[in-house]
Amino acid sequence: MKPYEKEIHEKLRKELQSDFLDLSEKDIGILKSSIRKSINNKINRSKCKICGQTTKKANSHNIPQSSLRVLASDGKVLSLSNAIVDSSYFIHKVDPGLLQAQTFNTICLKCENERFSEYENDAIKESVPYNQLQLNQVELKILLFMSYNKEYTFHYFDMVSENIKTRISNIEKANYLATDIKQINLDFLVEELEQVENKLYYSKKDIDDYDKLIKQSLKITNKYETIMDFSLDTSMSFSVSVGILPTFNKNGIQINKTTHKKFANHNFGYLYILVLPYDDKNTRIVVFYNNKYNRHLNFVKKEFDELDSQDLKLKKLSDLLLIYTDNIIYSKKIDDDIQHIFKNYEFLKQYDPTQTSDGKVYINLIKKINNTNLFN
Predict the structure, then answer these.
(1) What is the pTM of this model?
(2) Does residue 22 surpass a pLDDT of 90?
(3) Which of 158, 191, 302, 333 is the most buried (most CB within 10 A)?
(4) Comparing C-alpha atoms, which of 155, 159, 121 is closest to residue 137?
(5) Non-local CB neighbours of 234 within 8 Å, separated by 6+ positions
(6) Residues 6 or more apart from 261 whose CB is under 8 A from it?
(7) Cα–Cα distance between 53 and 46 in angstroms, integer?
């Protein structure tokens, strides 16, 4: 077992210590598989997010398989988010196979085949910039994947909630327990249940927000602003297909006030980033946003435009990825560097720039990663 895998294993034990402290590594593997199967079955029974039909779901990829194949070693890649995402991270595999990496099952086969044919295959290799239809398809697929992750989290916390309620009921019926011991256990579980119910509430809210964005994205008349779109003449050891919300400008001034109660139900839109290695020598990089959210995101375009070299633009892109997302797939070929990467992200994820109005937090994060560049 690798050092970072041991760390994940220990986190799992702490997460489940009340019921599963003595589980073996094999038993934990069985438990994770059971949780995945249960949640996937629930999601599979839901309606297609695009057409609304209850038909067989596709195994859709957020990152095109052509890019995953470039990164794969012995048919597997490394999912950083599965390694460090709090609470539900342990459900997913840290080293998924090509058929499991960043997949989702919330749309039907028909919609998968009809909606996403324009950008996933040869279009990645084309020298011409992505057209508006292709950008629309990228946006829609990223939003579907982000929504699926929240649904997964919701169902996970729902299972935890039911488990806690059962334990509360069992303790209440346990007449053999001393009153003070019973009350201590009940107080602990009630507090734990409140925390889980809070996470359930916000997960559901996030799902509703994503559904609104997905509905908006289904309008193929949307217009998009491209910040970057080019092929890099090197094959990167990672791949990204993600939407992020930059909240601070380069000077640490909060532009998108996501923490202000006035904007509690406000949608800011996302900056979409693609880093897609498509052979052993080239990587396609695309950065864009929906024009509907221009007033929230045009400051990012201006900051990129001010940079006079590709290297500086890539460093800025690296900073945005490091600070705002862990949703990155790495090649397992860089296994020797994984411990360093894992530790770096563990530090960064202690601070969420979308949950603070303090620009010093953002500036300190930029200083922390000053010597780190994903594209070097």
Answers:
(1) 0.84
(2) no
(3) 158
(4) 121
(5) 281, 282, 283
(6) none
(7) 9
